Amino acid sequence: MTHPYAGLPSSAYWRPAVADVGPHQLSGLWTPKYPIRKEDVVVTAGSCFAQHIGRALTAGGYGWTDFEPPPPFLPEGEARRFGYDVFSFRTGNIYTPSMLLQWLQLAFEPAPEVAEHWEHNGRVYDPLRPAIEPDGFADEQDFMAARAATCRAVRRAVEQADVFVFTLGLTEHWRNAATGLEYALCPGTVAGRFDTRTHVFANADAEAVTRDLRAMAAFLRDRNPDLRLLLTVSPVPLTATASGQHVLTASSYSKSVLRAAAGSVAGDDDRIDYFPSYEIITHPVFRGMFFAPNMRSVEPAGVRTVMEHFFAEQERVFGKSQKPRRRNARLMQSEKAADVQCEEVMLDAFAR
Amino acid sequence: MPSHAERPRLCLIGDSHLASVRLAERQGLLDLSGYDVEYWGAFGPHFRGLVLRNGRMAVHGAKARAEFARINGNGRADIAPGEFDELVFYGCRVRCSDFFGQHLQRRLGDGGWQSRAVMAMSARGFLASSRAYRIGAIFARDHGARIAFVPGPLLTAGVQDYEQPGQFLDLFPDSVRAGPEDRAWLRSELTVAAASDGVRLILQPEETIVDGVFTDAVYAVEAAVENQDPGHKSPAFAALMLSQWDSAVIEGANAARA
Q1: Is residue B97 included in any domain, yes or no?
Q2: B23 touches chain A (CB under 8 A)
Q3: What is the pTM of this model?
Q4: If one looks up domain A36-347 in CATH, what number appears?
Q5: Could you report the predicted ipTM of this complex, rounded to two decimals?
């Protein structure tokens, strides 16, 4: 070997791997560390882009599992409006690893009798997921019971999952200055009332995100030693920034930090992997083709392409996962009495 | 007895559960003489042909139409708003076991909680899963019709081995632990949901329920075990249900038998 670059595969060189093949023929973007089989219980959480992964896994026959499914007879659109069927539990978007760590701690620690909540027009809002009930909870008891149910679902998910997919979304976040509670959104935007004395802004750097990710991974491992973690970074830019920077550069900062931290944490652990959905959507080689005209929303074709890479690379490295997914015993509406019996009953009663 | 013209016009609409009402009347368990009564319905598959057409309750499909007409005895093809003073929907493909089983399992076994707003939506969704209910609600809303709805009751205890794979207790094992307060919660949700549609909901009374979520076997349809029929109930049960709608119908029957 004359030098370390000699004899490397073509994927290591820009011209054959990228320039010559173009965006639609790219392959080998991801070499997964471990197989994700169709029988694996897969859990998804994170920013809004994570919901696409769950849906695509389900469509692909994989075992994405919803540990907090909607109650029966809820119209599908309403279920999603109320935060069901979006992630594996009804947390709403979890943008930061520190927020996920906070949910995990809530799930595994004794529930407090009261928790911080916001009130507006007699309705109660959960600061960890203010949009989950569009009109708020009926009262504090309603809110606390729903929070507890979600915590139980998170706990079950962590304990039963084989693969935990977490999509990092933001570095910017808001906290309660006194308690440290991290909010999902800035108070006063969707619900709550902003108070400069109570609510403080933070913008995590790579060191902090890396530390939070490691703590989160350790927490998960502690509860489920066999759990494999798959990190992704949402390609969706910030909708707004409180950093004082332009929203475009603030987005670059945020995504760069998240990408670097994810890479760092995945780099030194065989059971933590990074899947490059972020690159597939945002890299200049794709010329922004997967973004909607607002250059923020990701078009369905983008999601489809991301997941095609996901499935293709899993198959390339580990072969096709053949085993059909064993469906959850999802509670079903059942047809009970045999119709032939129904007919006999009617004939008997109405015989003339 | 009031003359034919003076009696309120009552139509009992239903699927195969309607048979128990008819038998209750025949057996003198139910006195409907205070009403000018018609039955209109069909067993399951044909009952699904019930539709709303040009503002009238009608039936889709020739076979289903024939079945409705046959049950009616007078060849009735449809019902216009205002043709009856009272419409009582009975059974109508709505099975309380589905709603109770799933919600009780979530509440008692899975640690699930749905907010009151979500629960209210679930109750509305359950009722609205029946086209007959939806049509009844439209008649109530748009025409001020007096609508009562009697959903299909809970499964009868002891008729089947409900712990077999895929059977009720295999799916909802913790529902047997339900107590009166658990059932009251579900009753309340359903009743409020129906009332918001202008529909009077009639649910089976507490005294008919055993083992948390089953109907007492004394109300089983005849030969329920032999026919493996946990759904249908006896004429006595139908009489009990309709007595909640109008106590006179059972008081009259009791008086006649005394």
Answers
A1: yes
A2: yes
A3: 0.88
A4: 3.40.50
A5: 0.85
